[in-house]
Amino acid sequence: MHDRQRNSRELLASAGGSPQRPMVVPSASVIEGRAARSPCPHCGPDFEARVLEHTRPAPRLRRVDIACRQCSLPRTLWFTIAAPELN
């Protein structure tokens, strides 16, 4: 298996790599910041991403398309907004 294929499978299995395994955030206001700080799997943690698009395909589910600022590798990250706690 090639390194790029292995990295793709690891990303899909990790939190945020698919709609079935979204990263949980407390509010929508933190999503783009977290996505932008996501390290590139190809270039490493020193290269952050730029946000290309942020959409809401379903209630509380967010899709953020990003690309590495160094190599332009595109990725999609998935987030879900945690349900508010009742007092």
Describe the structure concisely for a colleague.
The chain has helices at 3-13, 31-36; strands at 23-25, 49-58, 61-68, 74-81. By secondary structure, the chain is of the alpha+beta class.
Describe this structure in words.
The protein has one domain. By secondary structure, it is an alpha+beta fold. A hairpin with a 5-residue loop joins strand 3 (61-68) and strand 4 (74-81). It has helices at residues 3-13, 31-36, and strands spanning 23-25, 49-58, 61-68, 74-81. The chain is built from two helices and four strands. The chain is elongated. It has a four-stranded mixed β-sheet.
What labels would you give this structure?
single chain, 87 residues, alpha+beta, 4 strands, 33% strand
Characterize the quaternary organization of these chains: single chain
Strand percentage lies at: 25-35%
State the helicity in percent bands.
10-25%
The separation of the N and C termini measures 50 Å
**Mean pLDDT over the full residue set:** 85
Q: Calculate Rg over CA atoms.
A: 13 Å
What secondary-structure arrangement, pairings included, does this model have?
Elements: H1 3-13, E1 23-25, H2 31-36, E2 49-58, E3 61-68, E4 74-81
Parallel strand pairs: 1-4
Antiparallel strand pairs: 2-3, 3-4
